């Protein structure tokens, strides 16, 4: 069966590759227009289908920049129920903004500006008109050729780096590997704490041909929090089984972490960006009753959508951590790009 799937998938992957090459040729030849903003724009993205850590990386950059620059985040607002340009405010919801942009707004509030627009070029112009930001972060925009960001950060997960992957549907690549040359920085995300020096060296060697600085980032899981932001110590979660609910592309790192703490839980998995409508909420309630679970634990992205139906649920905050040398290099590259763009 697996051999048959490969036989079917490979020709389709070749077709996808041909379409992508044609698309990039049309942009490179100037037949498709590219918008080059006059202000510093940093794009965060990946070549693979989900699970690379774009949200925590964007949050990392927000924390890095927000005290020095008037920072805005622009996303397309995947699976939102609105169209066009929407700027976050007191009346916005995950449905009007999208779960990840709403998470940025919920976490950072007035410290930054959060907006969504499926037309990134229009979104940048409207942000300039309304709030005049000093730097804009484009979430999940590395493959978006209509806008040429000044600095491009390419993410790839440690356990499945793009260099060893194949184009969809034979693999999880959504763009050509050669596009890594268009990035300015490559960040290997979800690096496990026990990653060996040999494995890191092997990855660095495999990525050397792209000629970009390669940094390693790991995930730090913090103490779960409730709707009010109050911490619920892990000792409480160890007392009784609970239900873990995820609607993200890759839940394995979180599950591995929970297992490493010897926690007992059942996992209810939904597709990435899942909308928890009344039917889903009813299904969850049945599972809670069947399992006898006393608590619900989820991701921060899912929490903003689950909170309405399950106000007692808690979430696990996560953040990216870079080695000190990598952190200094990333900050240097970003600040130099901002300064050079502002001086034009």
Provide the fold topology.
Layout: H1 2-28, E1 41-46, H2 54-65, E2 71-75, E3 86-87, H3 94-97, H4 99-108, E4 113-116, H5 120-130, E5 135-139, E6 151-157, E7 185-189, H6 197-207, E8 214-221, H7 234-237, E9 242-246, H8 252-260, E10 265-269, H9 278-291, E11 296-299, H10 300-306, E12 314-316, E13 318-322, H11 324-342
Parallel strand pairs: 1-5, 1-6, 2-4, 2-5, 6-7, 7-8, 9-10, 9-11, 11-12
Antiparallel strand pairs: 3-4, 8-13
Question: What's the CATH H-level superfamily name of the largest domain?
Answer: P-loop containing nucleotide triphosphate hydrolases
Strand order of the largest sheet: 3-4-2-5-1-6-7-8-13
User: Structural class, from helix and strand content?
Assistant: alpha/beta
**And the CATH topology of the largest domain?**
Rossmann fold
Number of domains: 2
> What separation lies between the terminal Cα atoms?
57 Å
Q: Strand portion, in percent?
A: 15-25%
Share of helix, binned = 25-40%
CATH architecture of the largest domain: 3-Layer(aba) Sandwich
Estimate the global geometry from the Cα principal axes. Answer: globular
